[in-house]
C-alpha cells in the first residue's frame, strides 16, 4: 500500500495518512472493491482527479445476497468532508429511484449528511449502505432479461470482484421455476398458479400469462401435491380440483391488483424522490435569494453614500466659484496674506519651507554669478557655507514640525 500513499501525495490530498488508513481498512473488509484515480466533473464544470473505490458490496434482500455495484469518490480533503457515492448499474439493470438514490444514481444518506471526521469512516458508510439497500434496493433487473439472467452463487461472486452476468443473481435451486424472485420496482405478492389440468386447460397460468408477468410458484401448507391439483382453492362442492371460471376470474383480479399496487408504489416512490430534490432546490434558491438581497442592500447603501459625496462636491464647487469671483474683484493681493494657516505649528512649518526655498534660489543665483565672473570664488564659498548651514537647520526644523503635526515623513 506504499503506492497508495504516494498516489495520494501526488494528487494533493491534505491528510494522506488518515485517507490511506481509511481506504486500506475498507479494502481489507470488502475484497470486491478496488481503488483508482479518475477524473470527476463537478456541477460547476470543474474537473478534478480524485481517488475512487469501485466494485460491489453484498446486500441481503429477502433472505438472498445480491452484489450491488457502487462507486465512492474521495475528495482531496478526505476525511474532513464526506465522500460522493453513486450506484452504477450494469447494462441489464435499472436504477430504482427512492429517497436514498436519485435518477442519476447519486446516494443520499443521513450518514453522509451528518458526516463527522472524528467518528465517520468508509467502513461505517458501507455498512449503512448495506442496511439501507437491504430495505430499499437501489437497482432492479430489466424485465425483458429477467428470465435469462444467469444464477451465480454467493461463493463464486466473492471470488470475482465484478460478476460477469449480473450484480443481482437469483437464488440457485435446480427445481425452481425460471421466474425466480428478484428485486423489481416493488416486491410483488405471490398468488397460486394453476397447474395443468387433464387435457391441457389453463396449465401453468402465471408463468406465461403475458409479457411482464413473473409470478413464482406458490405451494400452500397442507395441500396435496401428488395425484391432485395444488391450486390454493378448495372447491368443496365438486371436490375434483377442476379449474372453473370463478377461479380464473379471481386469479386475474389478483394479478391486476398486484400490478396496480406495484405501479402505484413506483409512482409514489418516484414522487417522493422528486419532492426531496425539489426541497433541496428550494433551499438552495432561498439561500441564493438571501445572498442577492444582501448584495442589493449593500449597493443601495453605496448609492446613498455616493449621492451624499456628489452633493458635498457640488457645494465645494460652488464655494470655489464664489471665491474665484471674489478674487477677480480684488485689485491687489498681499503675498503675505494670501496663505493663512489654522495653527501656529502649521505657520512655523510654512515659514521654514518658504525660507528654505529662498535659500535654494540664492545658492543657485550665486552659482550663476560666479560663472559670470561677478563674484570671485572666495566670496562664493563664504556665502554658500553660511546659507547651507542655515538651510540644514531649516530642513531639520521642518522635519520636526511634520512629526509633531502627524504628517508622513
From TrEMBL:
Domain (SB): residue spans on this chain: 343-409
GO cellular component, one term: ESCRT I complex
UniProt keywords, alphabetically: Coiled coil, Endosome, Protein transport, Transport
Keyword Protein transport among UniProt keywords: yes
Region (Disordered): 156-191
Biased composition annotated in UniProt, kind: Low complexity: 156-165, 176-191
Main localization (coarse): other
Localisation per UniProt entry: Endosome
Highest taxon in the source lineage: Eukaryota
An annotated GO BP: endosome to lysosome transport
Pfam families linked: UEV, Vps23_core
Keyword Protease: no
GO MF entries: ubiquitin binding
Family: Belongs to the ubiquitin-conjugating enzyme family. UEV subfamily.
Protein name in the entry: Tumor susceptibility gene 101 protein
Natural source organism: Culex quinquefasciatus
